[in-house]
Amino acid sequence: MIVISRELRINQRIRIKEVRLIGPEGEQMGIVSTQDALQKAKESGFDLVEVAGQAKPPVCRIMDYSKYKYEQEKKAKEARKHQKIMHLKEIKIKPRIEEHDYQVKLYHLKRFLKRGDKAKLIMVFRGREMSHIEIGKKVVDRVISDLMEVGEIEKGPTRDGRNIMVYFTPRAAGYSKNGSQ
Q: Please, what's the largest Cα pairwise distance for the chain?
């Protein structure tokens, strides 16, 4: 398999006297002058592509360059298609959160984790709430226990200034792209 590099030289851009030539079917044609190699490529209706510029002499192949480039882009697109992209979703709550607001935030966190994204919970303390951090810790512990079925703790809970942060990752099995199981 030929690995495409950033700067493959083709046809007239190959400025070496001699090259090791590989034919369109993969057969070795030996060491020939670049002009002869270009002539053979033109006769066969293909391009002369330098595939190994570091070798002595450089290795060139006769091939349809535009078709080769198209196939490489197609393979790269297919590889990206099967790649799972994981986002970090963030939810902020306060220590004196009401029950309904808590349930809404919990629902969102569960949805993120079921979809396969990571989630970050931030407990924000403002003003005098800093003197009652234990209230916030109870809420964070409740969130952690409620999320154990769909996610696991990646990091935390850690205190950072006026915030307590917890990072969750989805459980290994059971999540899908649309959030259903």
A: 84
Question: Where along the chain do its domains lie?
Answer: 11-81, 88-170
Collapsed DSSP state (helix, strand, coil) of residue 174: coil
DSSP type of residue 131: G
Question: Is 9 a residue whose pLDDT tops 70?
Answer: yes
CA distance 12 to 42: 11
Rg (CA), the chain: 30
How many CB atoms sit inside 10 A of residue 143's CB? Answer: 22
At 181 the pLDDT is 47
Higher pLDDT pick, 181 / 94? 94
CATH number 3.10.20.80 given to 11-81: yes
**Closest-CA residue to 126 (of 101, 92, 87, 168):** 92
Q: Which residues contact 90 (CB under 8 A, 6 or more apart)?
A: 119, 120, 122
- Asked if CATH classification 3.90.550.60 holds for the domain at 88-170, the reply, yes or no, is no
